[in-house]
């Protein structure tokens, strides 16, 4: 049983604006395959876990509004929230990538953020 049987009118208007014809819709469909594979690879590697799980929640909301999402898959949302709590910093690549990004990109912002991943 679908979460929402029919898409809301405002959502259909947005979809008609974003995807005016079948060629654009096919492009988005193919692009979504690569995005979902990228999300899965990032989660398995523990890379950008907070960002990737945020994207997962947005995709779940989009799929719910489109009428293509079922109640048995609603567990994606609580799992994504649970994984947003620093899941990649212990074993994943976030342990090394996030501090490096903070060192290199942190100088562009106001202040100097400091990562606590590798400190004891």
TrEMBL record:
It comes from the Bacteria. Keywords: Membrane, Oxidoreductase, Transmembrane, Transmembrane helix. Its EC number is 1.6.99.3. One of its GO terms (molecular function) is oxidoreductase activity. The chain crosses the membrane at residues 31-51, 57-83. This is NADH dehydrogenase. It comes from Tetragenococcus muriaticus 3MR10-3.
């Amino acid at each position: 049983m679908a979460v929402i049987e029919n898409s809301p009118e405002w959502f259909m208007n947005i979809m008609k604006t974003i995807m005016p014809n079948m060629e654009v819709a096919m492009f988005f469909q193919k692009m979504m395959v690569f995005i979902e594979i990228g999300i899965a690879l990032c989660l398995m590697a523990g890379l950008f876990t907070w960002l990737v799980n945020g994207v997962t929640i947005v995709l779940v909301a989009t799929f719910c509004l489109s009428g293509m999402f079922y109640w048995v898959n609603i567990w994606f949302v609580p799992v994504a929230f649970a994984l947003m709590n620093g899941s990649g910093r212990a074993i994943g690549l976030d342990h090394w990538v996030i501090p490096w990004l903070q060192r290199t990109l942190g100088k562009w912002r106001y202040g100097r953020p400091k990562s606590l991943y590798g400190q004891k």
